[in-house]
Amino acid sequence: LAIAILLVIISIIFSKKSYETINIGNNNLNKTLEEVEDYILNIKEYTATIEVTVNSNKNSNKYLIKQNHKEKNDEQEVLEPDTIKGVKLEYKDSSLKIENSNLNLKKIYNNYPYIESNILWLNSFIEEYRNSEQRNITEKNEEIVMQIKRKKDKKIVTEELILDKKTLKPTKLSIMDNSKNVIVYILYNEI
Fold first, then answer.
1. pLDDT tens digit string along 47-105?
2. How far apart are CA 128 and CA 122, in angstroms?
């Protein structure tokens, strides 16, 4: 009888410990790739500070940019380099407004057709991913990789968004050409 009681107590302790290690709180470690994909595809708004590196044949340029996305209203401000600091772009409905108070510049483009295809925006990647026939989501170490291959664009062939597995926040976005060279690299400093 004492052995049976001891076995019951030990099994209760082990089952309680098992439950505690499986149910580890409010985090994203237990999400399936399908749930992660659904979560990213349903992002409606965000604010981010990003470091953008644009590579060409001859040189590489870096920019620090603050973005604010809310449905169909996008705002972007260049924080660095100093030569173009303060340039603001606002995409609203179908118009683009560019302004820089330092240069006394203000220009509005109505019916601007490229609002949805700005590769610097996370929501642009999300739309491409949503509509892509060649998309893939995988898990590597502590990261989740969402990748798309574009058919329509001759310059951009592949885009790869990396998410932190624990927080599901984007950490970087690489945009590659047909030779697999990274032509735009975005590091999400804050999002």
1. 999 999 999 888 999 999 999 999 778 899 999 998 889 899 888 877 888 888 777 77
2. 10
